[in-house]
Design goal:
heterodimer, A: alpha+beta, five-stranded mixed beta sheet, four-stranded antiparallel beta sheet, about 20% helix, B: about 725 residues, alpha/beta, 3 domains
């Protein structure tokens, strides 16, 4: 009887361990991206978690649903999407054009916050320039609560924990 | 060959963009199904005109943890970005009154995705887009030049929808479908061009830039958005998108995009912080998109579908017309104008008469003549000319074809060194009031010109009749003592499949050399009264056509024996049980008019044949009256058995007979003259008049009818003709 109990306990902890590994805990951040008044098509951009050496760890959000143009987001394409083709289910949104804003929910893995990772917004517009780090900042709790200015098509982003 | 600048442009544009247009039209056909498929989804439970923005915002905020944006799409579905109470962020279709999730947006089907890409950019991104834009601009020009050509052809804008001249299938339907589909096609092409031009910043940009008042911060933050007066006045039907405030701080506000303007609204007071109307370019762009894709309208998507299909047909038929014209175009000039003794001048808009021109040229060359051949516009002096032939069609409302327009003017300014013997042959269709008008004008001008002598009188050729042309050649031969033979050079008429028939009945031969013959098809075939039986005594011969009466499932023909008629004599010698081979040619314009409330059949001689069948086919027993003229009473005897029964069972109301050599010595038109008022009233009430018999009779009958409608209705007969109330099949 005892044996069974121990076995069950082991099994349960094993399962929960596996489950925990598979779906790391995330925090919902509401994110607003305000674009500048640029002229041209809807902006494509991708929000990624990268490490100190700029290695792509995870893709949080992709704006633009026509994969034809993903190649234009060249750093992301070369280092991640072009090689691994990760599934983008549930994290793709429609593009918006100059002057508009976009709101979305980013699920940020808690273990990447305040542990030396960065959040990168890179952006591209058809037949226009590409910005590898339109917005980029250290993934810290303080940064996630402030407004960040962009260099390219993004005028600023704001984040707020849900 | 001279062709007008419009036709030339139409052709060059079409040839240069044809392949891409095929691609665009094919993908367009596929893409037309996308809005159809999306519009039928059940995400539109209530009329959005009845729901206020406040109601929808209220239910959504109750139902979900957080609402980021909502959007009303082209099908009036509401899509919202929401966070559920469980913390999942999602995009869902929502019910505007309950906030309940109705479904999730699906990804575009791969077929549509592929087609969209191909249609928009040929998979070549920006270069492809530019190219597609250019092609749609060319399509605009093609459609526009096409419209001009049709207007010209039909004789003016007002007559755009009048009857289309008889011609071969591709040409005829290029015109018939053209006038219906040109408008949607112009719209598709123009919106397509607009959408492309927009992509390349060729148009003023459609951005709206707000300058905003500072939101008041000292406010009561307990007010809910659904309580704001402004949201209560806005109907969901008027909403494009709503961006909810980013945070509950009063600095953050609602961004509301309505049909015609964009508003920033304070989230607690409802004050309008900024309001900007959308510029025209923005609205034009949205409109172009909807018109081009058909999104949001099932009916318009169907129109787009048909228009895309029609483009494919136009490409096919246009290509066939072009091939036809090349095949028929006359390029062989064997002698110069000053060496030649025989000059052939032609005037033709579509190149259809060129077969006759070439046949005449070949026949003359065969007989050792020096022949010069040129369009009428190039009329000039001819140093050694003896004979002149003018072969011309008439265009539009009795005008000259493009390549003959300057002929009459030149005729008066150019002096010929010799006297020339001329003949004028006009080509046209008797279905038109201005039949051979230009040929008549030319003939008249030559007759009054001191340098010319007439050989044969003006010859008018109806519907490209080979027989009529051969007749003229024979006439000319006897006048000038030549022996031209053109028949083997004439373009072969296409004939249908040869079928076998068994002779089942052969009447005695009447006093005026006519007889009836009944043929039973050996296989089951489909045909109607008024169709034509084409018979060729030898395979190379031009077929002879007989108008068919359908009696039961058999063919009844009425044939007059001509002294030199190969076919008629051959038929007269057939006996019951014999087998012959012939083909059937559809002649739908002379079939039983399905919509007619009553019919007047007018005929003389063997022209009665199709009516014998038509009366037999009158199952609904609508009133039919038959007018028939012949020489003697005896001529009637062979037809009588076929008309007695219909007269008693109601299929035929009345027969009016005219005999030109007996009793009152009347012609059929004289019978009509006595009943002018009755006929005019009948026409007014929608009666269909069908005429079959000799051309001479047809002319006289039309004169009587014209007079009747003018006198009693104050209308031209043409009005009824355009209304398809007048059908003729004469020879």
């Amino acid at each position: 009887m005892k044996k069974i109990f121990v076995l069950t306990l082991l099994l349960v902890s094993a399962i929960s361990l596996v489950a925990f590994n598979q779906a790391p805990e995330t925090l919902n951040y509401k994110c607003m991206i305000q674009l500048t008044n640029y002229e041209g098509e809807g902006a494509y951009f991708v929000v990624s978690v990268i490490d100190k050496e700029d290695n792509y760890i995870e893709t949080l959000y992709v704006q633009g649903d026509d994969a034809e143009w993903y190649r234009d987001l060249s750093a992301w394409w070369k280092n991640l999407y072009g090689i691994k083709r990760p599934t983008l289910d549930g994290i793709v949104g429609e593009t918006v054009t100059g002057g508009q804003r976009k709101m979305t929910i980013l699920k940020i893995p808690t273990d990447k916050i305040d542990t030396g990772y960065k959040l990168r917004f890179e952006s591209a517009v058809e037949d226009h320039e590409y910005y590898v780090d339109d917005v980029e900042f250290d993934l810290t709790t303080a940064n996630l609560a402030s407004k960040k200015e962009g260099k390219g098509y993004i005028r600023y982003i704001r984040m707020i924990q849900q | 060959m001279t062709i007008s600048i419009w036709r030339y442009s139409h052709l060059v544009l079409a040839l240069s963009s044809g392949l891409f247009l095929i691609l665009a039209a094919l993908t367009g056909v596929i893409l037309a199904f996308e809005p159809l498929q999306s519009a039928i989804k059940p995400y539109h439970p209530v009329d959005l005109k009845e729901v206020s923005l406040a109601e929808t915002i209220g239910v959504l905020q109750n139902q979900y943890d957080e609402v980021l944006t909502l959007k009303v799409d082209q099908d009036d579905f509401i899509i919202a970005d929401i966070v559920t109470k469980q913390g999942d962020s999602k995009q869902v279709y929502v019910h505007p009154l309950t906030g309940e999730a109705l479904g999730e947006p699906e990804e575009q089907h791969p077929i549509f995705k592929f087609s969209t890409n191909l249609h928009r950019s040929l998979f070549l991104k920006s270069i492809g887009r530019f190219f597609v834009g250019l092609i749609s601009f060319l399509l605009c020009l093609i459609a526009f030049t096409g419209l001009l050509l049709i207007i010209k052809r039909q004789g003016g804008l007002a007559k755009l929808f009048s009857k289309v001249q008889k011609d071969y299938f591709e040409l005829r339907y290029h015109v018939i479908l053209g006038r219906w589909f040109l408008f949607p096609i112009i719209l598709i092409a123009a919106t397509g061009t607009y959408l492309s031009a927009e992509k390349f910043s060729l148009l003023p940009i459609a951005l709206v830039t707000h300058t905003m008042a500072e939101p008041e911060v000292d406010v009561d933050e307990r007010v809910k958005p659904s309580e704001l007066a402004i949201f209560k006045t806005i109907k969901m039907a008027d909403v494009r998108t709503v961006n909810f405030p980013f945070s509950p701080f009063p600095e953050d506000y609602f961004e509301v995009s309505l049909r015609k303007k964009e508003l920033y609204v304070h989230q607690y007071t409802g004050d309008i912080l900024s309001e900007l109307p959308y510029p025209f370019t923005f609205l034009a762009s949205k409109m172009s998109f909807r018109l081009h894709t058909g999104q949001g309208s099932i009916l318009w998507s169907l129109v787009l579908l048909l228009a895309s299909c029609s483009i494919l047909f136009f490409i096919y038929s246009g290509f066939m017309m072009w091939r036809n014209r090349i095949k028929n175009s006359i390029t062989k000039v064997e002698f110069t104008k000053d060496e030649s003794t025989h000059i052939i001048l032609y005037g033709s808009e579509t190149g259809n008469t060129n077969g006759f021109v070439l046949a005449l040229q070949k026949a003359l060359i065969k007989n050792g003549k020096r022949v010069f051949i040129a369009p009428m516009n190039t009329y000039s002096t001819y140093k050694q000319a003896e004979k002149l032939f003018v072969l011309t069609s008439t265009y539009g409302e009795g005008e000259a074809p493009t390549n003959a327009r300057r002929f009459l003017e030149k005729l008066h300014t150019i002096n010929q060194p010799n006297k020339i013997n001329y003949a004028v042959i006009g080509f046209g269709s008797l279905n038109y009031p201005k039949y051979c008008q230009f040929a008549k004008d030319v003939s008249h001008a030559l007759k009054n010109h001191p340098s010319f002598n007439e050989t044969t009188a003006l010859t008018e050729i109806n519907n490209q009749s080979h027989d009529a042309f051969i007749n003229w050649v024979n006439q000319w031969n006897s006048k000038v003592g030549e022996e031209l033979k053109v028949s083997s050079y004439l373009p072969k008429n296409k004939t249908g499949k040869q079928l076998e028939f068994e002779v089942s009945y052969h009447s005695e031969i009447n006093t005026d050399n006519t007889f009836l013959i009944q043929l039973k098809p050996k296989k089951k075939i489909k045909f109607n009264s008024g169709d034509l039986l084409a018979y060729r005594p030898n395979n190379d011969d031009v077929p002879r056509f007989y108008s068919i009466a359908k009696c039961g499932n058999q063919i009844l023909l009425s044939i007059k024996i001509h002294d030199f008629g190969i076919c008629s004599r051959l038929f007269s010698r057939l006996n019951a049980g014999d087998t012959i081979e012939a083909s059937i040619q559809k002649n739908t314009h002379f079939n039983f008019p399905a919509q007619a409330k009553s019919i007047l059949c007018i005929s003389n001689g063997t022209g009665i044949a199709p009516f014998l069948g038509l009366i037999d086919e009158n199952k609904n027993k609508i009133p039919i009256q038959l007018f028939w003229g012949s020489r003697t009473k005896a001529s009637y005897t062979i037809y009588k058995p076929f008309l007695m029964e219909p007269l008693t069972n109601g299929k035929l109301q009345k027969i009016h007979l005219a005999y030109s050599r007996e009793s009152e010595k009347q012609y059929v038109q004289d019978l009509l003259l006595q009943q002018e008022e009755f006929i005019a009233t009948a026409l007014k009430n929608g009666t269909v008049i069908m005429i079959c018999g000799s051309l001479a009779m047809q002319h006289k009958v039309l004169q009587v009818l014209e007079k009747a409608t003018q006198t009693y209705l104050n209308e031209s007969l043409a009005t009824f003709e355009e209304n398809e109330q007048l059908k003729t099949d004469c020879y």
